[in-house]
């Protein structure tokens, strides 16, 4: 029996994954334990949980695999600073002392930390290092349903690569093309994110949500000045407008002169010009994404495509590629960003290093995090003086569906936590999408976030094609689809201003309890759709434990919390023991 532990850490979205003879046992992000959004620290809490959960110690672990090669990344930073000297001095003076003190000796430091876990003194200290984009590619291809596929990985930057093309076949992955730093679609999008006053590495999805409110009037300006796009989708950035390679900021003052406005300050009002810039960068991203997809199809001859890297989570661009028909089938790992690379690194070890054969996945289930037994949940709730009642299944689904149909907002906490940045029905806030003003209420009173932010619909799989332009299933909320005629008026809370929605489909096969609830709601209302958003507030990671869920419940205007078969009504709560939130900006 071979145990492999995969780790991603020290940039953003630290995570850990555990394989046993190639089987995915569990995977979880550190942020869910630390309660620090996008936490980048060594995932100590996540490792402790994953070892305890599967009754193993470090003595049982045959291989630990880190998701990238630190020395190669250090080489890139050093070369970049020298190349852009003297402008690179600021980055050099900030980064090099940290690397010399800590990161350059990451192998030694990782071993020191791993030895501290139970059984560490007996661990064989077999520590391997994958390549950043290889880890992304592996996380995308190995859990996919394809025997062979093209793999397109797009992110900010790994060691050197920013975009790579590979072919996955059987157990093998072979890289055939790559683009290198500083020419990066992820960095281009993140630069505009920063320019529009949002936080890099967490605010990019806000630009995607803001884009439909604008017109792409700056697209030509962007393509003529910021990025030179070739017919094959490759491109070069004009570094005159960017500072991420040399300084501790993303853009130069030249970018402000180009757009004719000052960069937006965080939390200041959003003007039409900001929406137009968002629409423009999204259109340019769509164009590059689609050109790359066409080139990859021609280059590889593959009919299936796996998308990986943080940019793959841009579901508007991914939706355009899907709708184009360039590939017959597209699969995106739900945790396509750096967190998912913990899983990819472990799979690199299993399939490439150990040469273990692979069977395409029939169904990849992203519910890989912690679950909580009812007794544990009750103990946590008792410790917080919560008022609750236990309801058997035959009543639970009817009671919850009735509450949703009555316009109540429900926190739905079931089973294992999702290994995904998106709630997929186990750590979700649910509501009736037919309520006209619900989007505003959810944004301002529940999520405490910007009013323009859209909410995603979840639909019973068997009815999806009747309501949206979708064929088949979309269980991971990875693509944008267009609502069919008349649906906008039926579902005002989940259809965005451009008539699209980031859709999730649910079947009894993929999530039995969630499906059962939705089926009950459909039988009451004739509507197979619910609003589904993550169970958290702005600046906070998705909840992990019943205690986290109760804190979120008490700090918001959520009406009811359902944890397994435990039901809590807001008007019955008198507890003063919950954690009072100080909402952070994200």
TL;DR of this structure?
The protein has 586 residues and is of the alpha/beta class. 36% of the residues lie in helices and 18% in strands. The chain has 20 helices and 22 strands.
Walk me through what this model shows.
The protein has three domains: 156 residues, Nucleotidyltransferase, domain 5 (2-Layer Sandwich); 146 residues, Nucleotidyltransferase, domain 5 (2-Layer Sandwich); 199 residues, DHBP synthase (Alpha-Beta Complex), CATH 3.90.870.20. The protein contains 20 helices and 22 strands. The strands form five sheets. The protein has an eight-stranded mixed sheet, sandwiched between helices. A five-stranded mixed sheet has the order 3-2-1-4-5, with helices on both faces. A five-stranded mixed sheet has the order 8-7-6-11-12, with helices on both faces. The two termini are 42 Å apart. The model has no long low-confidence stretch (mean pLDDT 94).
Gap from first CA to last CA: 42 Å
Helical content stands at: 25-40%
Dominant shape: globular
Structural class: alpha/beta
**Residue runs with pLDDT of under 50 for 5 or more positions:** none
User: In which order are the strands of the major sheet placed?
Assistant: 13-22-21-14-15-20-16-19
CATH class of the largest domain: Alpha Beta
The main pleated sheet reads as:
8 strands, mixed
**Count of separate DSSP helical elements:** 20
Mean pLDDT: 94
Number of domains: 3
DSSP strand (E) fraction? 15-25%
Name the CATH homologous superfamily of the largest domain.
Answer: Carbamoyltransferase, C-terminal domain
How big is the Rg?
A: 23 Å
Please count the beta strands (DSSP E, at least 2 residues each).
Answer: 22
Q: Do you know the CATH architecture of the largest domain? A: Alpha-Beta Complex
The CATH topology of the largest domain turns out to be: DHBP synthase
Family: Belongs to the NodU/CmcH family.
Protein name: Carbamoyltransferase
Domain Carbamoyltransferase C-terminal: 401-570
Domain Carbamoyltransferase: 4-346
């Amino acid at each position: 029996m071979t145990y492999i532990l995969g780790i991603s850490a020290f940039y953003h979205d630290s995570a850990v994954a555990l394989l046993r003879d190639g089987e995915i046992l569990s995977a979880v992000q550190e942020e869910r334990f630390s309660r620090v959004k996008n936490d980048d620290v060594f995932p100590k809490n996540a490792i402790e949980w994953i070892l305890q959960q599967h009754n193993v110690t470090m003595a049982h672990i045959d291989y630990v695999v880190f998701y990238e090669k630190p020395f190669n990344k250090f080489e890139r930073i050093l070369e970049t600073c020298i190349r852009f000297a003297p402008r690179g001095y600021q980055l050099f003076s900030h980064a090099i002392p940290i690397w010399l003190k800590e990161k350059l000796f990451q192998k030694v430091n990782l071993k020191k930390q791993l030895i501290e876990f139970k059984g560490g003194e007996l661990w064989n200290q077999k520590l391997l290092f994958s390549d950043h984009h290889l880890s992304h590619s592996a996380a995308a291809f190995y859990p996919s349903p394809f025997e062979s596929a093209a793999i397109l990985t797009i992110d900010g930057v790994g060691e050197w690569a920013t975009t790579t093309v590979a072919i996955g076949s059987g157990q093998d992955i072979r890289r055939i093309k790559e683009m290198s730093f500083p020419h990066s679609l992820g960095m281009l999008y993140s630069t505009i994110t920063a320019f529009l006053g949002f936080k890099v590495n967490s605010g990019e999805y806000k630009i995607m949500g803001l884009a439909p409110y604008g017109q792409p009037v700056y697209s030509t300006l962007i393509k003529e000045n910021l990025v030179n796009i070739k017919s094959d989708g490759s491109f070069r950035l004009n570094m005159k407008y960017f500072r991420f390679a040399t300084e501790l900021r993303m853009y130069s003052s030249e970018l402000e002169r180009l757009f004719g406005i000052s960069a937006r300050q965080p939390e200041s009002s959003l003007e039409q010009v900001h929406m137009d810039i968002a629409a423009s960068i999204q259109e340019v991203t769509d164009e590059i994404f689609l050109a790359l997809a066409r080139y990859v199809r021609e280059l590889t001859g593959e009919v299936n495509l796996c998308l990986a890297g943080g940019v793959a989570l841009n579901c508007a661009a991914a939706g355009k590629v899907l709708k184009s028909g360039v590939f017959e089938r597209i699969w995106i790992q739900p945790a396509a960003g750096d967190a998912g690379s913990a899983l990819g690194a472990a799979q690199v070890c299993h399939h490439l290093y150990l040469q273990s054969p692979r069977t395409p996945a029939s169904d990849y289930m992203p519910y890989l995090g912690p679950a909580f037994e009812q007794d544990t949940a009750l103990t946590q709730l008792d410790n917080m003086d919560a008022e609750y009642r236990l309801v058997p299944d035959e009543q639970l689904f009817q009671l919850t569906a009735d509450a949703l149909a009555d316009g109540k907002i429900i926190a739905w906490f079931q089973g294992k936590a999702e290994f995904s940045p998106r709630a997929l029905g186990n750590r979700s806030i649910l509501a009736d999408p037919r309520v006209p003003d619900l989007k505003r209420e959810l944004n301002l009173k529940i999520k405490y976030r910007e009013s323009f932010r859209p909410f995603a619909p979840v639909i019973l799989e068997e009815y999806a094609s009747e309501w949206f332009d979708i064929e088949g299933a979309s269980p991971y909320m990875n693509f944008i689809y267009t609502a069919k005629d008349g649906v906008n008026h039926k579902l005002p809370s989940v259809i965005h201003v451009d008539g699209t929605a980031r859709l999730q489909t649910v079947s009894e096969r993929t999530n039995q309890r969630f499906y059962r609830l939705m089926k009950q709601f459909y039988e009451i209302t004739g509507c197979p759709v619910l609003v589904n958003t993550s169970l958290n507030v702005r600046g906070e990671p998705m909840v992990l434990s019943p205690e986290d869920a109760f804190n979120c419940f008490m700090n918001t205007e959520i009406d009811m919390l359902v944890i397994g078969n435990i039901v809590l009504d807001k008007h019955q709560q008198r507890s003063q023991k919950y954690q009072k939130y100080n909402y952070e900006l994200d």
